[in-house]
Amino acid sequence: MTAITGVDSTPVRDGRETATGDASNGTSRWPTLLAPPGRPRWERAATFSLLIATAVVYLWGLGGAGWGNGYYAAAVQSGTQSWEALLFASLDPQNSITVDKPPAAMWVMGLSGRIFGFDSWSMFVPQALMGVAAVALLIAAVRRWAGPVAGLLAGAGLAVTPVAAMMFRFNNPDALMLLLLVAAAYCTVRAIDTRGERFWSGSTGWLVGAGVLMGFGFLAKMMQAFLVLPGLALVVLVAGAGGWRTRAGQLAAAAVAVVASSGWYVALVALWPAGSRPYIGGSTSNSLWELAVDYNGLGRVFGNHNGGGAHRPTPTAVPDPVQHAADQMPRGGFGGFGSQPGITRLFTGELATEFSWLLPAALIALVAGLWLTRKQPRTDRIRAGLLLWGGWLLVTAAVLSYMSRSFHSYYSMELVPAMAAVAAIGATQLWQRREHLAARGTLAAMPLVTGIWSFVLLHRTPEWLPWLRWTLVALAVLAAAALLLTPKLPRFALATAIFAVLAGLLGPTAYTLETVAGVHQGGSPTAGPARSGRGSQYGGQGAGVSDPRIIALIDATDARWAAAAQGAQDVSTLELTTGKPLLAVGGFSGRDPSPTLSQFQQYVADHQIGYYLTRQRQNQGGNPQPYGGNSGPESTSAQIAAWVKANFPVTTIGNVEVSTLNP
User: Fold this and answer.
1) For the packed helices 244-271 and 229-239, what is the interaxial angle rounded to 10 degrees?
2) Contact (Cβ atoms closer than 8 angstroms) between residue 146 and residue 372
3) Per-residue confidence at 87, pLDDT binned at 50, 70, 90?
4) I need a labelling partner for 104 at 20 to 30 A (CA). Which of 161, 241, 292, 625 fits?
5) What is the pLDDT of residues 297-356, one digit of tens each?
6) Residues whose CB falls within 8 Å of the CB of residue 75, separated by 6 or more in sequence, listed in order
7) If 0-12 CB within 10 Å is exposed, 13-18 middle and 19+ buried, where does residue 256 land?
8) Average pLDDT over residues 439-460
9) Residues 22-70: tens digit of each pLDDT
10) Do 550 and 567 form a contact (C-beta atoms < 8 A)?
11) pLDDT value at position 29?
């Protein structure tokens, strides 16, 4: 890298840094720490220490973490009982319907359950190890272009962000998706670093590898994985080797890899006879393509999806307090499903406390870094890193800010690697230029703004450690002052840098430790300390159907499906409790057209279903109302419920109506 006028820059040799990265000309001990050729002696020890600490935090107490999201846990259990259920991510081992996500994450957890036996530990440990691997890959990717200090700072930023720690200890597909995206970014970095300007050079292979990883990211969380593609493509076009035709050709090869590595499964489902595979949950046409493009894609962004498993229920004819609350909410969510769409969404409410601790600092770092590298050559590695991670950050933030339907706060996990990387790259670049007042002032602003923002976030849980927010502000002010005075106190430069880092990471670290100390359940988990009114839409899953008398009925039947119920909530609970297959009428929310009334009637005629369960709750008028999905009176599941009620005797056990279908 050539030098900005009057300021030294990090040298680049053969496409990667030499790990010197300081402009103080021997005025402090910091250059001594970074100056040895090759990898600094301390780097390996520091990296391993960070990864070991991350593993300890992420793995701690997983055996007692419950089932997490019972919906996915039931699918994982089914995958340990049936290979077909594992392939399709079926909710039950008899393969009536799939979950409303693609199966890649269920493959990993299901195989772990088959190897070690299915329980909480075998399900959650792969997720935690994915988190450790994601931290390691982020360190490696950032280090190649911005040096070891930036790599370690980025890895630490990812490891201690509350939403990341929570989701790497949970069984949603987001953990696998994020690991694959960070791995794709690493491959993109390696592609740009690899020598050779021809299309068929080694750099093309790395980009094809990135494309394959992105494709499997699609098989983990569908189109959400593609939010990072603009950032990855931008850095290849701007900083890749060779002419623009070569770079465009390499991107085309990567695009083919994305399509092939994701499309094979879409084709498999489309070509598999529909009558011999489970119904695709979340779709209205039994189509994985519809699930990807509509329910888990553009329909979720623009708010017009028609998927059968839509999270927001259709209003019912009977007044219902839960439905009424949903109707009063903006399109952004239902219960714990998010906040009002708009540019300020990521800075508001509970969502901000889950991920945004370093976001103000990252935005400052991005602007400052692009300004510092504005005159550098096209292939400048520092600017390339800012384009990659900054593009990832801005595009993903824009989409999440304006997503109109079914927004969960944990979606912000996808922002964390880019946020941490940008903040780390910008901070280290400003540190290298700290002899200049403008750079030093901008650097000092980063911990100061972080401290103030941490105060704001912690004030949203005022009962939890009230002293911490004031402490963080005081530390931030001291860190900013020390950074401004660094040239006058060269002997304390290293101590100042460490103090500033600790001041910036203390807030999210405390929140993360509080997060991992708790047990998270349901479909919309939230990080941080408990709050009044906090809860998941699926919290307390299936409490009514856990009555020992109902469990005894389920255990005693040997029908193909021990019981059926509307929606997935009670079905998941009973499957996990008894290990028996149950039929979720209407899939996740009871709105999928599966099974049809005629199919259900045939199952009953063939003695394939033991019982039909209807859990009751009180509506606003004090009258009992079926629980388990607001499907609307014309839905298939409502027709099935009406047919069962009209033709079979009902016994009430607790708050559950039990219809015996197979005496």
Assistant:
1) 150
2) no
3) very high
4) 161
5) 887 777 765 554 443 333 333 333 333 333 333 333 333 455 788 889 999 988 999 999
6) 85, 89, 90, 91, 98, 99, 106, 110
7) middle
8) 95
9) 333 333 343 333 333 467 788 999 999 999 999 999 999 998 889 999 9
10) no
11) 40
String of DSSP letters for 87-132 = HHTBSSTT-SBB-SS-SHHHHHHHHHHHHH-SSHHHHHHHHHHHHH
Of residues 26, 28, 22, the one with CA closest to residue 492: 28
- Give the CB-side neighbour count of residue 615, counting CA atoms within 13 A: 23
- Decide if 66 contacts 104 (C-beta within 8 A): no
Residue 108 is encoded by which pair of tokens?
A: 């990993």
Q: Which of 283, 232, 291, 292 is nearest to 257 (CA)?
A: 232
Q: Averaged over 276-287, what is the pLDDT?
A: 95
Q: How far apart are CA 468 and CA 550, in angstroms?
A: 48
Question: Judging by beta carbons within 10 Å of its beta carbon (0-12, 13-18, 19+), is residue 264 exposed, middle or buried?
Answer: exposed
User: CB-based contacts of 533: which residues, under 8 Å, 6+ apart?
Assistant: none
- DSSP for 53-74, please give it: HHHHHHHTTGGGSTTSSHHHHH
Vertex 359 angle, CA 209 and 468, to 5°: 130
Q: Is pLDDT at 490 greater than 70 in this prediction?
A: yes
Long-range contacts of 373-376 (CB under 8 A, 24+ apart): 373/4, 375/4, 375/5, 376/1, 376/2, 376/4, 376/9
Q: What is the pLDDT of residue 274?
A: 94
Average pLDDT on 465-480 reads 94
| Per-residue b or e along 371-393, where b marks 16 or more CB atoms closer than 10 Å to that residue's CB | ebbeebeeebbbbbbbbbbbbbb
Return the bridge partners of 612, or none: 564, 659
Task: State how far the Cα of 431 lies from the Cα of 35, in Å rounded to an integer.
Answer: 15
* More confident of the two residues 411 and 334: 411
Quote the DSSP letter at residue 566: E
* Cα 200 to Cα 208: distance, rounded to the nearest angstrom: 11
Q: Residue 200: is its pLDDT beyond 90? A: no
CA max distance for the chain: 88
Q: How many residues does the chain have?
A: 663
DSSP 275: G
Say which DSSP state 4 is in. B
The whole-model pTM stands at 0.88
Q: Which residue has the tokens 């880019």?
A: 418
Distances (CA, A) of 62 to 2, 125, 365, 605: 49, 7, 36, 43
Q: How many helices (H) and strands (E) does the chain have?
A: 26, 8
d(CA 420, CA 135): 11
- The three-state secondary structure class of 563 is strand
Q: State how far the alpha carbon of 21 is from the alpha carbons of 16, 25, 48, 147, in Å.
A: 12, 11, 22, 7
Q: Is 21 helix (H, G, I), strand (E, B) or coil?
A: coil
CA quadruple 482, 483, 484, 490: dihedral, nearest 10:
80
| Sequence letter at residue 206 | W
